[in-house]
Amino acid sequence: MEIISSVVLATYQGEEFIGEQLDSILAQIGPNDEIVISDDASTDETLGIVRRRNDPRILIIVNNERVGYVMNFQRALDRARGQYIFFSDQDDIWLPGKMAAMHTALGLVGFAASDAVVVNDSLEPMHESFFALRGATRFTWCAIFLKPCIIGATMCCRRDYLKSLLPLPAGIPHDFWLSLNAAWDHQLKAILVPMILYRRHLAAHSPTATRRTRELGIVFRERLRIIRMMLLRRLLSP
What we know:
Helices cover 36% and strands 22% of the residues. It is an alpha/beta fold.
């Protein structure tokens, strides 16, 4: 059976919200689609909740020890078989029409990402637009480099384009790496309509979702590393 779309989902200690997220995704995918879940050595009921869905479209990969969220996504990507790759976090909600809108965008470019409604842990709206919250009006590589505005959970890629950006480099957030390169390559389509409810809560495992600020030194080193990796990618590409 040829897999049309793969949803890659990295989990870690996600028992509180993973069930809602899975149900919102399963409602949109078809019989020839799959969800590839890579779990980063969770010790709570995350995997139990996933397994109780008892859906043959769900593939579970279990890490024996923690590898971090970037490499956790890489492990899911290594097993994904679809022609279209959707990224998902464990604690958000897909809104109706997300997959169809993304498929339309990927008919034109290699990479697409949407806006999101920012909500709290009870799904109460905090901001109607993440793009507006970030002040994102342009989606050029320069704008994204200066102020990243693409949430990983809103991204999707065509497999043929995504292959040119793998493996994900360590030490760089995967959404920053993929969106910046897509903008540089003129392969990015920003969908200005929210396609997910994006939870921000204290138990999340990313700075964006918790609104934690990062040290300037860390941000500076990250920017230097991504410049170096992007230059290497272009020097080594055929």
